[in-house]
Amino acid sequence: MTPERVRAVVFALCLAWLPFAGSAREAPADRKAVDAIFDEVMTRYRLPGLALGIVEDGRVVYSRTAGERVEGEGAKIDSQTLFKVASNTKSMTTATLARLVDAGKLRWDDPVTRWIPDFRMHDAWVGREMQVRDLLIHNSGLRAGAGDLMLWPEPNTFTRADIIHGLGYLKPYRSFRSGYDYDNLMYIVAGEVAAAAGGAPYEALVRREVFEPLGMSRCQVGRWNRVEVGNVAQPHRRDGNRNVPVRSDGDIVPATTMDPAGGVRCSLDDMLAWTANWLKPEPKNAGWLSQEQRQALWAPQMPMPVSRRMREWDRSHFSAYGYGWRLADVDGVFKVAHTGTLMGMYSAVTMLPDKGAGFVILINGEGDDARTVLTQVLVKRYTSGDPALSVAHYARLLDQEDAARPATEKAPDTSRRRRATGAELAPQLGVYRDPWFGEAMLCRDGDAVRFRATKSPLLDGVVQRVGDRWLIDWDDPSVDAEAWVAFDANGMRLSKVDPQADFSYDYEDLAFERVGQCP
Asked: Where do the TM regions start and end (predicted)?
């Protein structure tokens, strides 16, 4: 079946659900009930800060914040506090591109090479055939998160030119357009396509095409002055019973390579304005985007797997990716949503268009389970109304999932470790190079052996021995995915110690060859 036929079938399935979604909705958000949900999530997951807002029929019916921008410093979070929205940036990037399509400056089916002549993929045919639309729907054939080590951990010195060059060396995981695998690098390319077509850098374009016309006045992207802007939440990681700030901002927040994929920061008020615009735009914004492009962004472009959790929790029958949005059905109700995750920051935008409702969640701590539970409980208020589907209910289901996970999917016990010595690894010491990641040194550091990546300074750690294996214990605790190290005739290979670690730690895509001796 051709990709076009697949999209047509999935879109028909989406439309088939719309009659079910037309059922009457509950009265506007019950503040007392939502407050209780908010309080329970905040307490259960010991979050440093939480912001929640709900939109119904184009107006904000609930807005609440709690916690601190930096835990322990006393500055309270409010509806104007800036959070990293992470991958919720992607829908802003696709909206920017859609505005350019409306203006006749770009077509979704333009070859990427029309705008970026140097664009290449590992398979030359894929590079020639890839269209702008393909950059947005995770069908490149690369492994999920492939090449993300050029984006994270931050800071690093990789440029967007490095990303475009590096894509030519990333080997595919599957055939082009044959399946869904989440991809951040293609959104970096999409940002550069927008810049070429729009005649301005990506950061200027998204301000011009999205923030300014929609009145998202607090949103920031690119380089900005944190002191002048003020009221900025900082990310946190868990350290025992404490929330500890991690990768805190300096006075100047620099532009980053990853801006088009996840670099925007906005306040709760901004994100509620963004959500309301999609559900029921104000008359002054009615012409911001044509109906044709609004439909294109929410049309199923790439089928996604329907997980066991989706089937059991939501009675879902379809799942697909649009342009920067995830699409699914929940209890027969159409859902449009996306999440955002960066170190110490979690966000979610969820909309039920046929209910006229949507909500925004912003968290400045380790909030994966908190986001999942809060999203589920709020969605079910509109699609089910069953009071038993509570915070405690979904927290218990997550605990059960974790307990049932097989040992092969859990991090092994590496507590019995010791530092490797230079003598043990003497035959392997040297300078190594990967064609897309660049150089790394595996060299003596006193009595120990240290791995140090040239262009990613946080990937710096001491090699440990665990039984007959080697792993890298990163110096910076915010780099929360240790790496196994193995050697073969071809060079050095890395892999994740914890199989559940974030896929953006794509150690498996590295292929280091030794190119020199240690200095």
From this structure: none
